[in-house]
Amino acid sequence: MTSHLLKFSGVLALALILSGCVINQQQQPEQPQQPAPVEPVQPQQPQPVPSQPGPIETVPQPPKMQTINWQASVSPLVAQMLKADGVTAGSVLLVDNVKNSTNGSLQSAKATAALQSALANNSQFTLVTPQQLAVAKQTLGLSAEDSLVSRSKAIGLARYVGAQYVLYSNAQGDVKAPELQMQLMLVQTGEIIWSGSGDVQH
């Protein structure tokens, strides 16, 4: 009996101690986790600019436009054309604007001017003047800069100004080394009576 009592009181004491530990742990409030202090970021001070001037930077040059010698480019072709068979001397010739079909920017107005100049004193054709051409384009509702693009448009304009022939010119290929093509067409039938081509001269 005594031994039972001792065992019971021992178990009871152990239970009380254990429950006391649990109660003690529950009563202690948990400490809230303190966030790590954030260090304020110092704004970067602008670096003082040195008062002495630094080395002068060289500005890169823009790429130079290819200078084309249009006069040298068109003259051999014009000489060939003037010897073409089947041309009636004294006929009226419309020189259409040179078209740019290259892969870049080309000064086709200068090419057209060189073509007009190369034909200025020829004995074979009478040229439609740039003024007549401008008036005709205006009347037909075309812009002064309009390259007629299609041969049929060029022929229509030539008929309007009373020309018997039209010279259709086109620069094509790589803009750095274009090829110039020319075709002399009979306005009445649209037949090409002469064609020639040559590399553009720089």
UniProtKB/TrEMBL annotation:
Primary location: membrane
Signal peptide (residue range): 1-24
Alphabetical UniProt keywords: Cell outer membrane, Cell shape, Lipoprotein, Membrane, Palmitate, Peptidoglycan synthesis, Signal
Keyword Transferase: no
UniProt-listed InterPro entries: LpoB
Compositionally skewed regions (Pro residues) per UniProt: 32-53
GO biological process, one term: peptidoglycan biosynthetic process
Subcellular location: Cell outer membrane
Keyword rRNA-binding: no
Region (Disordered): 28-63
Main function: Regulator of peptidoglycan synthesis that is essential for the function of penicillin-binding protein 1B (PBP1b).
NCBIfam families linked: lp
Oligomeric and partner information: Interacts with PBP1b.
Name the UniProt record assigns to this protein: Penicillin-binding protein activator LpoB
Gene: lpoB
